[in-house]
């Protein structure tokens, strides 16, 4: 019988460059897609502007200024006992335009210094190569991942960082939540497809794409699969110690009722939205059900010579995913009407939701860990999980966030159950271990951090860091290797 978390379990936290670094135009960095998203809110979607508008607030431009404060932040992670720190490299710091011949030395030096700082505390960096951003120049010139040429640009970037950080980084993820490209709103955010892109990031009301745009989105996903597989192979060639994972948005969906129509619809949603990407990246080929789906959707993906072998040769070493919430799938028009256009389907009457309407479902984490592990049988990592909530700073400076502790505790308990079930879970990096910019809304107010950052939605604040109650709690959890969750 398994007894809880293994000895070398990777406890830590997760961030992404465009949501925390800032310094968007310093150190030779080029403009990325993320730099073109304005702020938004729960009710008003972020805008994407093709030009940077003077006087408009773009949260990524300063974010939480990790670029200048990483030493302080990593010291706080070390104080909590982090074994791993998930972060991403901004491609634009290394190749500002994406198609440059030579890398930007200042960008390379910055990440070297960040990784060295992690190593100083025995923190293992876990590095995402592409987290919802890419060089804007590639979008303008090539329509992002819709172009096959982008594969080579990406590989040149990968080769550079795999080589330069050979002894510093061992764990890599290729594309963050790659399966966002199975949804119409993912074309720009995940694929950098500029042509026909909507002006708003309206996740609740996905825009109606044309047949051509839909096709482009799936072709872009295919290009990312090929790029990812080639990157896996390259990482192994450069250092046999490298471990590369896929990163899938764990969009769990249950059937709303046992009506066979709901059952089939929920299964189909999982097949297309979640399994398709995992199957290609773990098993090295498109799953059996993709052909019918593509035919029915009018999607045509031409595999170039060698693509099938490339996918087979570049299977990932571990399966990582984000997990926040679940929803229900229904085929009942009345239930759908009541749900509006929730991305996760219809709400589950057995669950409560966060302030931002994300339903909280810790047991679903155990369920999906078993689902994915049962399907793939390779080591698993939960690389995002957490509660976005508003926090209050008391007059004495303390931040009491019992709701966050409750959320994290319940999910860790379920991870422990999954391990007891036999799942090979190797790590856990809750999202936004430090408050950062929300990806969907651009807010600061939607806080995930166990470290508080003094900054508001309009960009005001000292950027000072402070420890929330959850900081001390998580420190205890790590010190006890998940045994003490009180
Ligand atoms: C994941 C993304 O989808 O969810 C992160 O990988 C994101 O970038 C996180 O920040 C939480 O979502 P949000 O919209 O609340 O920031």
Structure report:
Helix 2 packs parallel to helix 4, helix 8 crosses helix 11 and helix 13 runs parallel beside helix 14. 38% of the residues lie in helices and 13% in strands. The protein is α/β, with parallel strands linked by helices and 486 residues long. It has 15 helices and 14 strands. The structure holds 6-O-phosphono-beta-D-glucopyranose. 6-O-phosphono-beta-D-glucopyranose binds next to loops.
Query: Count the strands?
Result: 14
Main sheet attributes: strand count, strand direction, barrel closure: 8 strands, parallel, barrel
Tell me the number of helical segments per DSSP (H or I, 4 or more residues long): 15
Q: Could you estimate the helical fraction of the residues in percent?
A: 25-40%
Strand percent estimate: 5-15%
Order of helices and strands: EHEHEHHEHHEHEHEEHHHEEHHEHEEEH
Report how far apart the termini are.
24 Å
